[in-house]
Amino acid sequence: MAVLICGSLAFDTIMTFAGRFSEQILPDQLHILNVSFLVPALRRDFGGCAGNIAYSLQLLGGTPIPMAMLGSDGAEYLERLSGLGISTRCVGQVGDTYTAQAMIMTDRDNNQITAFHPGAMMQAHANRIDGSLPDVRIGIVAPDGRDAMVEHAAQFQAAGIPFVFDPGQGLPMFSGEELLRFVGQASWVAVNDYEGKMLCERTGLDLAALSRKVQGLVVTLGAQGCEVWVDGARTEVAPVAPTQIVDPTGCGDAWRGALLFGLERGWSLERCAALGNRLGALKIAARGPQNYTLDFDPASLGA
To answer: Are 206 and 200 spatial neighbours (Cβ–Cβ below 8 Å)?
Structure first.
């Protein structure tokens, strides 16, 4: 069965700063911030949450269906997806704007500063979840245009399709009331540590209380692994040490592809999280969000 991945498709311009942001930004001068970073390394990659998650899930042997919107410059991305064997039947295209663009700068401590131009992503609500997708078993609402995230969550619920709510960098767009509505519609919630704290602050609920509203909640902690919350109880899932640390861009999306792979197969949330940690370690050792490979045979994962 297929997994519907609602989120962005974007082109990522990734730059590497050899120093530390903390050494260049003076905390007491933020009100007159004017800084410039020399970035000798620069490259352009395929990115966006939907594309990155689909790449991860496809590597594992799943069947991803990204639902996203491309702009007038999106032909190259369509060719990329088709070449990977990923369905493009739910990828729309608008001709009067560019595909979403992310400009990401990473320092030597893997801190990142990102500028994001949404472009065609703001029209993603034109893609709809309906009865034309009978092979979809589960889904995810990942960062996307605001209207698309709201409408796709409601459409998943109306279609009776369980889904992961993954607000990511889109979380600040929503009020506490709106976030609680998303949680009430979803079956699972996935956030990183920072997003988890913001989600709690905006909703007025702690992680234990939020986990009681869904089948499970996961909080990724980077090099510290992750936490799995089920019915108010927390379980720590140990990290997987990477062979090297090269580029953190897309690690969270690689993790979510593994999460969806396991959920679609009925795995426990802890088992899904362990595989997610494994994929995150592989991704961080490769440059770009969609250039890593597996160091194991997916068939060895079993049912």
So the answer is: yes
